């Protein structure tokens, strides 16, 4: 058992490791139970495959990686909001509807941004590849 600064450091380190564990458990349960998240992961895999296939630039890679990370993070937050709302009420309530729809709106905006960016990066390359 450590005391003083060493004890504090060990404690802080354990708390950090525990919180990583909780975050990973949250991601795992969401991936297991949310169909939309599985769809995002499939699209992310396709986007990464295309990125390697077309040897995109470093800047394009940054866009792709940030959009994938952002999309998955937002979907996780959306799932958390849906579950929190369901925990508060299973009754039909206008505020429950608004909370879920607004969270879904955030995901939708980011998804549109991702699709447009994907098209800007891949469409010209795909067109060239098929000989158009
Ligand atoms: N308690 C509620 N009161 C009023 N409307 C609700 C309530 N719960 C859900 N809704 C409405 O029904 C829609 C579908 O809700 P649901 O909980 O099935 O989530 P979802 O949007 O289908 O998400 P997912 O498919 O990711 O689970 C919501 O977007 C919302 O418009």
In short:
The protein has four helices and no strands. By secondary structure, the chain is an all-alpha fold. The protein has a single domain (34-129), classed as Helix Hairpins (Orthogonal Bundle), CATH 1.10.287.3610.
Classified by CATH, the class is: Mainly Alpha
Q: How many strands, which pairing sense, and closed or not: the largest β-sheet?
A: none
The poorly predicted ranges are none
Structural class: mainly alpha
Give the strand tally. Answer: 0
CATH topology: Helix Hairpins
Q: What shape does the CA trace take?
A: flat
- Give the N-to-C terminal Cα separation: 69 Å
Average pLDDT figure: 94
Query: How helix-rich are the residues, as a percent range?
Result: over 70%
Strand content: under 5%
Order of helices and strands: HHHH
Heterogens: adenosine-5'-triphosphate
Count up the helices: 4
Radius of gyration: 20 Å
- How many domains? 1
- CATH architecture label name: Orthogonal Bundle
Family: Belongs to the bacterial diacylglycerol kinase family.
GO molecular function: ATP binding; kinase activity; metal ion binding
Subcellular location: Cell membrane
Active site: 75
């Amino acid at each position: 058992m450590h005391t003083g600064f060493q004890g504090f450091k060990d404690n802080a380190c354990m708390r950090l490791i525990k919180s990583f564990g909780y975050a990973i458990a949250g991601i795992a349960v969401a991936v297991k139970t949310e169909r939309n998240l599985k769809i995002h992961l499939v699209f992310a895999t396709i986007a990464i495959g295309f990125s390697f296939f077309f040897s995109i630039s470093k800047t394009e890679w940054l866009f792709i990686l940030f959009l994938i990370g952002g999309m998955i993070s937002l979907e996780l937050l959306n799932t958390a909001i849906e579950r929190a709302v369901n925990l508060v009420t299973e009754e039909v309530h206008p505020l429950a509807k608004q909370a879920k729809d607004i969270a879904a709106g955030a995901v939708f905006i980011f998804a549109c941004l991702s699709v447009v960016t994907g098209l800007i990066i891949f469409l010209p390359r795909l067109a060239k590849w098929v000989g158009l």
